[in-house]
Design a protein that fits this description.
This protein is α+β, with helices and mostly antiparallel strands. The chain has one domain (4-356): Chorismate synthase, AroC fold. It is built from eight helices and 18 strands. The chain has helices at residues 37-45, 107-113, 131-147, 174-181, 190-205, 233-241, 263-266, 337-356, and strands spanning 4-5, 10-15, 21-27, 65-68, 70-71, 74-75, 80-85, 151-159, 162-163, 212-219, 247-252, 270-273, 276-279, 287-288, 291-292, 297-303, 313-317, 322-326. A five-stranded antiparallel β-sheet has the order 1-2-3-7-4. Strands 9-8-10-16-11 form a five-stranded antiparallel β-sheet. It has a two-stranded antiparallel ribbon with strand order 5-6. A hairpin with a 2-residue loop joins β12 and β13. The longest helix is centred in the C-terminal third of the chain and has 20 residues, at 337-356. The relative contact order is 0.18. Bound molecules: flavin mononucleotide. The site of flavin mononucleotide has 22 residues, from α8. Flavin mononucleotide (FMN) binds next to α8.
């Protein structure tokens, strides 16, 4: 089921960008869990549109209405079902995209797959809007993980070629992650963050877009979580994160840079530290053989530049089967990266909780 994530905790997302509402059904949460709804709202606000000049001007309150699964504020064992209304829709912006697909968006492939019955408005089911319910589910899972001493947090590592200072992958702390998470622009070095913002605004001025990299950490995991081969921790995390629209690549630890290292440089020596087995370095990104090593899990997620740009682009007219030019209207993010940060945290949190339960 392509709209369902997880095995023991099943998160099913529904709706389209301009349907009456979007939402999520979360099955398998432990009973008696009392989610802190203020924390949930604060988490979802980090993804919400219209918060600054760096994101789309679409204004959505993103207020989750829980319609089942909680009794007196506690999970009762029935699936938690939440609906989020779509209120700020302007479907007129999208009519012609059905036959004149946007380059790099899912208009063409969706039209082929669904024989033209796909909902083109606002990107339909392929819209970044569908990450709002993902973040709702993720916010609940983050709270349950925190009860087990596990913290998940991400930083913007790069935007438009401007890099942030990464956290030390051996010594990531909950405080360090919370400090970044509390920022409206979640970077480690605010000066780098300022330069990234300038790159986004420059792209916006040029009616263009930029991409970037998000680095996500998970700490507090005991060694031994995961499976070899096809159900490894890397496999499961990558699969979940690729569900976020706009994700182009995922790597762990030293990632692709490992291909250019010697073994003597890349290997992480083991050592006993406070009576625990640790590694001196963390090029393995906390995962060996698909199984957690007890070191911080470190995952990089590459996000492409937003497909919808205002510059005229070459495309085709599927009615006339002729080449044509499209100029995209509507409201779009000049850079998806800042809003995708909580989405990555959410996908990681859901996956880790699902694997732990
Ligand atoms: C939070 C968020 C917001 C997004 N906003 C836009 C947008 O305004 N315009 C756009 O073209 N794509 C946007 N996207 C990405 C598209 O939904 C995505 O590129 C498209 O569905 C095609 O999927 P793919 O890039 O994974 O192949 C957004 C993604 C996320 C996570």
């Amino acid at each position: 089921m392509s709209n369902t994530l997880g095995e023991k905790i099943k998160v099913t997302i529904f709706g389209q960008s301009h349907s009456e509402a979007i939402g999520v059904v979360i099955d398998g949460l432990p009973s008696g869990f009392r989610p802190d709804m203020e924390e949930v709202a604060a988490f979802m606000a980090r993804r919400a549109p219209g918060l600054s000049e760096l994101s789309t001007s679409r204004r959505e309150e993103d207020k989750p209405q829980i319609i089942s699964g909680l009794v007196d504020g506690a999970t009762c064992g029935a699936p938690v079902c939440t609906v989020i209304n779509n209120s700020d829709v302007r479907s007129g912006d999208y009519g012609k995209l059905k036959t004149v697909p946007r380059p790099s968006h899912a208009d063409y492939t969706a039209m082929i797959k669904y024989s033209g019955y796909n909902d083109i408005r606002g990107g339909g089911q392929f819209s970044g809007r569908l990450t709002a319910p993902l973040c709702f589910a993720g916010a609940l899972c983050l709270q349950l993980l925190a009860e087990c001493g596990i913290t998940v947090g991400a930083q913007i590592l790069e935007i438009g070629g401007v890099g942030d200072l990464p956290l030390d992958p051996v010594r990531v702390s909950p405080e360090g992650l919370y400090a970044i998470r509390s920022k409206t622009f979640p970077v480690n070095d605010d000066t780098a963050g300022e330069k990234m913002r300038e790159e986004i605004l420059k792209a916006k001025q040029d009616m263009d877009s930029v991409g970037g990299i998000i680095r996500c950490y998970a700490i507090g995991l005991l060694p031994g979580l995961g499976e070899p081969m096809f159900h490894g921790l890397e496999n499961r995390l990558a699969s979940a994160v690729f569900g976020i629209p706009g994700v182009r690549g995922v790597s762990f630890g030293a990632g692709f840079a490992a291909a250019r290292m010697r073994g003597s440089e890349h290997n992480d020596p083991f050592e006993i530290n406070d009576g625990k087995v640790r590694t001196k370095t963390n090029n393995h990104g906390g995962i060996l053989g698909g199984i957690s090593s007890g070191m911080p899990v470190v995952m990089d997620v590459a996000i492409k530049p937003t497909a919808s740009i205002g510059i005229p682009q070459n495309t085709v007219d599927l009615n006339t089967m002729e080449n044509t030019v499209v100029t995209i209207g509507g409201r779009h993010d000049p850079c998806i990266v800042p809003r995708a940060v909580p989405c990555v945290e959410a996908a990681v949190a859901i996956t880790l909780l699902d694997m732990l339960i």
